[in-house]
Write a structure and sequence with these properties.
The chain has about 325 residues and is α+β, with helices and mostly antiparallel strands. The protein has a domain of about 220 residues.
């Protein structure tokens, strides 16, 4: 017989157990169900399209704006050949921006500078000429840039009237000097500060150009504002192996590009070279089938032809054995 005290204690224990059990079920029911974790969506890969027009790799308006930052021709050449500059030319499409050399020439009332691109095969291509003319007694000077016809087309001129006091390059160029500046560098003999760099996309280059042309009132014309110019000593430097499509190619360049029409066109940089082809396998040329091994390419000799044996009647019969008799008449 169970005492009242024991019965009460056992009932209390059962009640506590039931309460804990219901609480656990309630907690488990209130917890949210685990959700599957999904990976973030992959960002679509974008390919920045660039232009293959050679003249867009060296903006002539920005070249006028660069004269406000350079203090002399040597500094101008250095600014042209450093990453992030206005020089984005890759005429030979080797994946590197071409080094541009500066040479002063001429004389008289104008100061003249020729810009020549050095290609990786040792050839040279003049790309532009810059002319500075000051009217006596004026505080401004006319700065004119002409693109080479093979690169920019015929009669492409840009000009601007700049105060000499705000352009160090103009003040240096118009000051009498004992000698002209002629760059001592060439292909394979670059300055110590120079490091080759790859062309940048069009959007990046356009932003760079804007920084040099924002406050420069440049005008374009089809006739030179500055006339009676001396001929450029580099006018005849036209690279035959100019790989980019030219605006007005010479005969040698035209013949080279006709022979080179079957090359694939890539999609990177002003110079569309091997780096862009690696990034876009669809533009690469189809692989050539492997040549068969030398042993397989040799013709094998035909098997010998077995001739049927002649019939028995046609076979020659052997002569009968000769008989030998000795001196006594006996046959051996």
């Amino acid at each position: 017989m169970v005492s009242p005290t024991g019965f009460w204690m056992r009932g209390t224990a059962l009640g506590i157990a039931a309460l804990l059990t219901s609480g656990c079920f309630a907690c488990s029911a209130s917890r949210p169900a685990p959700q599957p974790v999904s990976a973030p969506p992959a960002k679509p890969s974008t390919v920045t399209a660039t232009s293959n027009v050679p003249g867009q790799g060296l903006d002539l308006q920005a070249l006028i704006g660069l004269t406000k930052q350079a203090k002399d021709a040597e500094t101008l050449e250095r600014l042209l050949n450093q990453p992030g500059s206005i020089n984005n030319l890759d005429l030979d499409e080797d994946g590197n921006v071409d080094y541009v050399r500066v040479q002063e020439y001429g004389g008289g009332t104008t100061k003249n500078f020729s810009f020549v691109a050095l290609l990786n095969d040792g050839q040279e291509q003049e790309v532009a000429n810059l002319v500075i003319e000051q009217t006596p007694g004026q505080s401004e000077a006319t700065v004119q840039v002409q693109g080479h016809p093979a690169v920019y087309g015929p009669n492409v001129y840009y000009s601007a009237a700049l105060p000499i006091a705000t352009a160090l390059f103009l003040a240096w160029a118009l000051t009498p000097r004992p000698a002209f500046y002629v760059s001592p560098y060439g292909f394979g003999a670059f300055p110590a500060y120079y490091r080759p760099y790859a062309p940048v996309p069009v959007a990046t280059y356009r932003t760079t150009v804007t920084n040099y042309t924002r406050n420069v009132p440049v005008q374009r014309s089809s006739a030179p504002p500055v006339r009676s110019l001396p001929p450029s000593p580099n006018a005849g430097k036209v690279a035959p192996s100019f790989r980019q499509p030219l605006t007005q190619p010479g005969q040698t360049q035209r013949q080279f590009q006709q022979r080179d029409d079957n090359r694939p066109v890539a999609a990177g940089g002003f110079g569309q070279g091997p780096a862009a082809q690696r990034s876009n396998p669809a533009s690469a040329p189809p692989a050539r089938p492997a040549a068969p091994p030398p042993s397989a390419s040799r013709p094998t000799a035909p098997p010998p032809v077995s001739r049927p044996a002649p019939p028995a009647a046609a076979r020659p019969t052997a002569p009968p054995p000769s008989r030998n008799f000795n001196t006594r008449g006996r046959r051996n």
